[in-house]
Design goal:
It is built from 16 helices and 16 strands. The protein is α/β, with parallel strands linked by helices. It has an 8-stranded parallel beta sheet. A 4-stranded mixed beta sheet has the order 3-2-1-4, with no helix packed on it. The longest helix is centred in the middle third of the chain and has 18 residues. The two termini are about 20 Å apart.
């Protein structure tokens, strides 16, 4: 059955037209989970004009939001380490002292799937409640085959429990667990062998790694990416977060969907990413939490024409953030994105960072009917407000929820 939304401005977020792809007094029709018409209400075809409409009363209509970088499946929390950092310890010092990712590893290994799922759903519900209809979920806190796969099973179950699209990333190359003292052996025995198994079980949509001095080198990551591409899996990378370690250039060389963080990116990196079509995923929650002075070189990314996405990086340590709307405000305030760049970054460009640009991220005919209706009248309000959730209605594949 056809359904029709009318009575408010429609920010399609499609490129090439007005800012935000904005249509005043717009209309959106959908059927069987797919958009069948987007345009001015006055231009509705005769076949749709007789459908009983849902009038949004002047509210803004946008695509459902896309959180393209999260770690929402994990055990425990790291509030104690938050205190340590506030007392002067650096992220690297916390990690080298056995905290950081390794403390979450211990809690995640100790938790069963039901416990991990219950905890993850609290975080997922917060994101859904702000209009998120698609989110990426990474492994990376098990650091052995069984527990990395456990995390991905839980991630898949989220989509069974909640009306949200889940995209999974294999991130076993996140940190070296204490039972290994050689990165090469860990990569061979856990990262690569586990990837083969997780792929055979249909649990992996993409492959990620942490390219940093405290994690894995670009040579280490290259071997992981070679295996990923041999399996037909796209790649993405945590790159240039704490230092300039060559990750952005590596991501571009492999045609990565995205390179994420990028606090230490330079102009050559931006140019390489632009040539490769690699999306820059900006994660202001991590910058904020870690109080980093270095910020991504947005001017270089903008000048090179790199698409910029914005995500929460929801994780227990460096970004315990479950508000994509707040991430948009942070991206504008801390990184100086315009409101339009920020909102594009959580819709169209975030979809591209997941390889889903043909399916979601804009309101266009043929795409999924993932739609958000907001108690605001202008798109910039979604970026401008702090600690305020104006969501009125969320549709996932055309269904409220």
């Amino acid at each position: 059955m056809d359904r029709l939304i009318v009575g408010g401005p429609v920010a399609t977020m499609a490129p090439g037209g007005a800012r935000y792809g904005l249509i005043e007094d717009g209309a959106v029709a959908h059927r069987d989970g797919r958009i069948t018409f987007v345009g001015r209400r006055a231009d509705l075809p005769a076949a749709l004009a007789d459908i009983p409409p849902t009038d949004v009363g002047g509210r803004l209509v946008t695509p459902g939001l896309v959180d393209c970088h999260t770690h929402v499946v994990f055990g425990g929390n790291r509030a104690a380490e938050f205190e340590m950092r506030l007392e002067g310890a650096s992220y690297e010092e916390v990690a080298r002292a056995g905290g950081g990712i390794l403390s979450t590893m211990r809690a995640t290994r100790a938790a069963d799937e039901a416990t991990l799922l219950e905890a993850a759903l609290w975080r997922v519900d917060a994101l859904i409640g702000e209009g998120v209809t698609t989110m990426e979920v990474k492994s990376g806190y098990g650091l052995n085959i069984a527990d990395e796969i456990k995390m991905l099973r839980v991630a898949r179950r989220i989509a069974e429990e909640r009306p949200v699209r889940i995209v999974t990333s294999w991130l076993a190359a996140h940190a070296l667990p204490p039972e290994y003292d050689e990165r090469a052996r860990y990569i061979e025995e856990v990262v690569l062998a586990g990837l083969d198994r997780a792929h055979s079980e249909g649990l992996v949509d993409a492959v990620d790694a942490f390219c940093e001095g405290i994690a894995f080198s670009s040579d280490d990551v290259a071997g992981v990416f070679d295996r990923a591409l041999s399996l037909g899996l796209p790649v993405k990378l945590h790159a240039e977060q704490l230092s300039h370690a060559g990750g952005a250039a590596l991501a571009a060389r492999y045609g990565a969907l995205s390179a994420d963080h990028l606090e230490f990116i330079d102009e050559a990196d931006a140019a390489a990413m632009a040539r490769a079509g690699t999306v820059a995923v900006l994660l202001p929650g991590a910058c904020y939490t870690l109080r980093q002075a270095e910020k991504p070189n947005v001017a270089a990314l903008r000048s090179a024409g790199v698409r910029m996405a914005v995500a929460t990086d929801c994780n227990p340590g460096s970004s315990p953030l479950t508000s994509l709307l707040l991430a948009l405000n942070m991206a504008a305030t801390l990184f100086r994105l315009t409101p339009e760049e920020a909102l594009v970054g959580a819709t169209r460009h975030a979809a591209a960072a997941l390889g889903l640009g043909d399916e979601i991220g804009t309101l266009e005919v043929g795409k999924c009917a993932d739609i958000a209706v907001w108690n605001v009248t202008a798109p910039a309000e979604l970026v401008y407000r702090i600690g305020f959730n104006p969501l009125d209605t969320r549709l996932f594949a055309g269904h409220p929820g």
